[in-house]
Amino acid sequence: MVEELLTNELERLRQELAEHERRAVDRERQLERFAADLRDTFRREREQAQAVRDSWVATVRVLINAVEARDAYTGRHAERVAAYGLELAAGVDPTMTDDPQIEFGFLLHDVGKVGISDSILHKPGPLTRSEWNLMRRHTVLGSEIISEIHFLARANEVVRSHHERWDGRGYPDGLVGEEIPLPARIFAVADTLDAITTERPYRPSSSVPAALDEIALESGAQFDPQVVAALEEIPLETLELIRGGTAAEAA
Ligand SMILES: [Fe+2]
Questions:
Q1: How far apart are CA 138 and CA 45, in angstroms?
Q2: What predicted TM-score, i.e. pTM, was given to this entire model?
């Protein structure tokens, strides 16, 4: 009698244990399916984000090509300036280099030149005062052109303010010191470095060290001193590589 009771109880416990195990296996399978669904969702989201980024870059490329087609003699100016600018940004505030808009702003800085007539843009002699005033409008024009593109809002800081000066004597808004967006202050130094070290129809190119000396003289006048200090920290070979590398490709 006792033995039968014990056997029954044991059987009941065995069945209970089997039921627990079955449920545990079910739950584990459910969790695995859930994890697989999550992985799929993440993968799809990553793909969508990449597609959005690709279309940003394609849009920016179209705009840059439109500018460079108008202003051919500067060659790969936008690419070199962007490379100098990113080196400077890494020295001034490394978090800036995580934002693709900073590079887009460097690349697109002169997008407004698409709205400046050829007779002014390619005039061989010096510009008259009124022509110069029209030329200066490329900053505001560029800013208006890309203002509708929300993902270029930060890039627009460079487009609008890349000809501002630290001492307030720049254009279009006459901003002073830190009123000028930092990416635009960085760009101003990169742009001047490229201008001095590139041959133009009206003057030969200077060496990188000569350009550094010239820029240092304008620290606190045309340029933000912290950006000039960051420039002096960049190894000379890096600057030479940017200058020579892209110049060789353009040749
Ligand atoms: Fe410009």
A1: 38
A2: 0.77
